[in-house]
Amino acid sequence: MKATNRKTKISVIVPCYNEAEALPYFYEEMNRIADGMQENDFEILFINDGSRDATLDEMKQLAARDARVKYISFSRNFGKEAAIYAGLKHADGDLVAIMDADLQDPPSLLPQMYHAVMEEGYDSAATRRVTRKGEPQIRSFFARQFYKLMNKISDTDIVDGARDFRLMNRPFVNALLELGEYNRFSKGLFGWVGFQTKWIEFENVERVAGETKWSFWKLLAYSIEGIVAFSTKPLAIASYMGVGMCGVGALAIIFVIVRQLLFGGSAFGWPSLVCIILFLGGLQLLCIGILGTYLSKTYLEVKHRPIYICKETNLPDEE
Ligand code: UDP
Ligand code: MG
């Protein structure tokens, strides 16, 4: 795929939400790496995901200084997934990389990723962190459980510790763009499209400035989104539970009738009855909840709302 008489262009997509403090560090480091990759042209595509701080000003300053810097600014916070989609849509490089603004995705891995795609024949080079140093223990624990569960119930392979940080070739990017769904769970989409991916491992790096945008609850909602987007097993589990409960009920009826015929006497056991009613009531609500979750995602999907709204940009082709 290497063009013969021009440099291979790499587009770097950087989703930013309140990253004014981190951006200068990011730009400096990215610049250093780009300088070291003389055989490539670069384009840095900053996506301002409705930041409330000076992120956009920071981007404009960088764009004024450096023609390789492009920015797209959203009308509000649409989430990192929407930012990634906007970036993929507007990146025009031969290769496209996605990178966090806080330097937790070390740009220094880029030459290695580039080598994997251009020389080793992979379609994409992805990264995964092998440690979660510097992260709250409880968060790591739940994250690990999530990946275990996810791999059990979904057909798409989702790698533990996988970052969104990856370098992709054109066919890979075009395949991702074909998936125009509203509920985007990139970690699953990357796996779903197939292709050959090389995994590069690295140790966790703490963010250079600012703070994480993900609270525990936001992560929990995100993981439910991931499950709903990539597995319908919870729906099947709900029906299995229904069948199981019917079986238990049938056995109980037989038991009560036989006991009545053999031993007679009046019916007793009101406390146990209350327990059973509560249990079954809870189970029914749980199943309706599972159903509702899928329904709500379907509802959002069929509305066909745009994934993001661009308010301001220095790209020529954006509306
Ligand atoms: N981000 C975003 N929109 C959001 C939340 C986060 O674009 O609603 C960006 C953020 O600016 C950063 C990346 O996504 O570049 C990862 O976010 P963060 O570092 O807060 O997550 P963590 O590394 O702690 O998982
Ligand atoms: Mg981070």
Summarize the structure.
By secondary structure, this protein is α/β, with parallel strands linked by helices. 49% of the residues lie in helices and 16% in strands. Strand 1 (8-16), helix 1 (23-36) and strand 2 form a beta-alpha-beta unit.
Order of helices and strands: EHEHEHEHEHEHHEHHHE
Note the total helix count. Answer: 10
Gross morphology is elongated
Strand content: 15-25%
The total count of strands amounts to 8
CA distance, first residue to last residue: 30 Å
Mean pLDDT across all amino acids: 88
Uncertain segments: none
Overall SS class: alpha/beta
Characterize the main sheet. Answer: 8 strands, mixed
What ligands does this structure carry?
Answer: uridine-5'-diphosphate, magnesium ion
Order of strands side by side in the largest beta sheet?
A: 7-5-6-4-1-2-3-8
> Considering DSSP H and I runs of 4 or more, what fraction of the residues is helical?
40-55%
Using the CA coordinates, give the radius of gyration. Answer: 25 Å
